[in-house]
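new request in #modeling-help
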Amino acid sequence: MENKFNLILESSPHFKTKRSTPQIMYVVILLLLPMCIAGVYFFGWAALIRILLSLVTALLTEFIFLKLRKKDISPVFDGSAAVTGILLALTLPPTLPLSDVVIGSVVAISIGKQLFGGLGYNIFNPALVGRAFLQAAFPVDMTTWVKPFYFNLDSITSATPLGGFKIDGVSTALNKLTLGNTGGCIGETSAILIIIAGIILILLKMADWKIPVSIIITVSVFAGILHLLDPVKYQDPLFYLFSGGLMLGAFFMATDMVSSPITPFGSIIFGVGIGIVVMVIRVFGGLPEGMMYSILFMNCFVPLLNRYTKPKIFGEV
Amino acid sequence: MLYAYFYLIYNNKSKKITRVMMKMKRLTFKKGIHPKEFKQITENLEIKEVPVPPKIIIPIRQHIGAPLNPVVKKGDRVKTGQIIADSEAFVSAPVHSSCTGIVKNIGDYPTPLSPSDTCIEIETEEKEEFDFDLNSNIDYKSLSKQEILKLIRRAGIVGMGGAAFPAAVKFTPPKDIHIDTVILNGCECEPYLTSDYRTMLEFPEKILEGLKIIMRAVEAERGIIGIEDNKPDAIEKMSQLVDNESNINVQAVKTKYPQGAEKMLISALTGRKIPPGALPFSIGVVVSNVGTAAAIYDAVVKNIPLYKRVLTITGEVLENPANLLVRVGTPFSFLFDYIGGFLDEVTKLILGGPMMGIAQFTPDVGITKATSGILVMGKRRVGKEFNCINCAECVNHCPIFLVPTKIVRFAKSEIWDKAEDYGAMNCIECGSCSYMCPSNIPLVHWIRVAKSKITEIKKSSGK
Ligand code: SF4
Ligand code: SF4
C-alpha cells in the first residue's frame, strides 16, 4: 500500500459545525450596518466619522493591549473588538466631540474587556462600559442632542423623546420614533430597523430570543400598568419600548453572549431584571434613558444567575 | 433535466414516507444535535464477506470488565471458534479464534483501544476447521434462563454498538429487580455508519429471534425495537416481521443525535429516565444493539461464537466504501487492501463513528467485536480554538442537561470537586457540545480529563 497515511490523534468528536466565533461576530457587524446607515442618513457625515473613529480606535486598542500582554495578536480580527467599537458609536450622540469618541472606545476595550482577560472573560458589555464612562466624565457632551437632518436646519439642538417627555412634558409621535426621525444617539433612533435586524440575529441563532422577549414583555407590562393608573403622567407602553435605545439594548447589547447568562432560565430572569430596572430608572430615577445602566446592573448578576439556574441533570429528581 | 429532478423528489418522498411510518408517532428526547448524516455513501451497499486474511491479530482486551488470560500457547494450532482467552471473573466474555491456524505470537501490539496491549497473532491456514457444530439448530424455547445466559457468555457476546459490555452480565439483573422491557437499539445515530441498518435489512429474522431470546433470558413482558426515521425501509421491514407478535413492536424515533445513547433511547421509548449514576436495570429496562441481538441468535440457536461482525468502512477519501462482514482481528490495513485505494491523503483513521469514535495512530490494528465502523477522513481545515464566548450552544444541546463550558473551566483550572458538582461524571461523552462549540473548544476531551481525575481522587481517598 502506498503511504497515504499521515495520521493525527485527536479526541472525539471528529467533525463539527462550520459555525465559528469570528463568523458570529461578523454576522453581528453585518446586522449592525443598517443602523449605521440610518444613523448616517439622519445625522450626516458627523455620524459616519464617529462610527469609523470608534471602530478604528477599538481595533487599535485591542492590538496594543494584546501586545502589552504578550499575547497572540490574531484576536484583533476575530470581530469582537469591531463589534464593540461599532456598538459604542451607535449609542453616542451624533455630535459628540471626537476626542470623547476616542476615549470611550479606548475605555471600552481596555477596561471593559482586556483588563478582565480578553475575549470571553469580561463581565460587562464592553461597549456599555465605554459609554458609562463617557456619561460620567462628560455629562454635558453626552446629553447634547441634535435634530435629525440638523445640518439643514436653523435651530439644531433637540431633546431626545424621553428627555423631552421627562423634563418638558413634550411627547413625540410614535411614527417618528419607530422610523428614527427623532433626536437621539446615532444608531438608537430607528426602532424598526433594530427590530428587523434583531429578529434576523435571533433566527440565525446568534442571539438568545428569551432575552429581548422577556425585556419587551416586562417593560410593556410595567408601563402598561402605570399607564392604566395614570395616563397623563405616564406614556403608553409603546412609547417606552420604542425610545431611548431600548430596542438596541434589548436585541444587541443585552444579548451579548459573553456577558449574558448561559442557562435558559437565567436568560429569562436576566431579561425580566433589565426590564424592571430600566423602567424604575426611567420612571422614578433621575435619568431619562437607563437602558445602559440596567444592562450593566444585570451583567453583575450573570455569574450568580448561572450558578443558581443550573439546569437539572437528566434523570435527576 | 426537469424529469430527473422530479424523479429525484418523487423517489425521495416515496422512500421517506412509507406505509408504516404514516401511522407511527415518532418519539424522541430533549436537546441533542442534527449533524449531517453521510449515510448515503454506504447505505445501499450489501454486506460483503471479507476473505480470511493471512494473519490475524486478536486483542484479548475487547470488553469492559475483568481482563482475560490467554488459554493457548505460541505454536498451538487453533480452530475457528475456539476459545483462546478467558477469565473466571463474572464480568467478562471469552475471546475466540476467528480463523483456523497456528498461534504465532502472544505479545504486545497496538490495539484500537490502546497503544500497546496483549494480542494473539494467528497465521491462518487455507483449510478451515470449526470448533463448533455447523449444523446445530437449537430450540431456545426448550432452554432455561440460565442455559441461555451460559450460551451467551460462552459465545463471547458483548455489546456490539461500541460499549462492549459483556452481554450475559447485562442480562443478569440483581435479584430483587424485575425487567419488564427489552429495547433493541436500531438507531445508529452516528453519522456515516450503516452496519446496523444493513443488518436490519438483510438479517431481520435473526434480530427478531435474538430479541425473543433476550426477552426469555430476562423474563421481560415486552420488546421494543427503536429505529431512527431516516431508515424507513428498515422500519418497514422490521414492522412487517413483528406484525403477529403481540408483545413486540417497532417504534420510529426522530433522527437526532445521540438518539441511540442508552439513556436517550429509553426515555424516548418508555418515558422513563435513568437517574444519574444508575444502570438501566434500576428502571426495569435492558437495551441491546440490533447487531448484538443477531449475534445472540447465532450463539444460542446456531451455536456460533462471536468471531465475525458487520462493519462499515467509509469516508469521502475511500474509492470503494463498503459494508463488510469481517472476522475479529482482521487488521485495518488488510481491509483497505481488500476494498481498494484512497483518493487522497488520510489524516484521520477512526474506529467507530465521527462523534464518538477513537482516532488511531496506525492502520495495523485488528478490529474488535465492538468495531461498528472504520471512518477514514482526508485533509481538512483544523479550526483554531478561541476563548469561550458563553454562547450557550453547548448548554442548549447537551442531552444530559449539563453545563459543559463550566465543567471545562473547572477542569482547566483543576478544580475537580467543582467539576464533579457540575455533573461531570454524568457526561455520556456524546460529543454534542464540542460539535456545536463555535470556539472549537475540545469540551469532551476536557470533561474526560475531569472524569478520570475525579475517579482517581475517589479511589485514592478510599471511595
Ligand atoms: S457534556 Fe457530555 S453529555 Fe453533554 S453534550 Fe457534551 S459530551 Fe454530550
Ligand atoms: S459552546 Fe463553546 S463558546 Fe459556547 S458556551 Fe459552550 S464552550 Fe463556550
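bot summary: Chain A touches chain B through 47 residues (CB under 8 Å).
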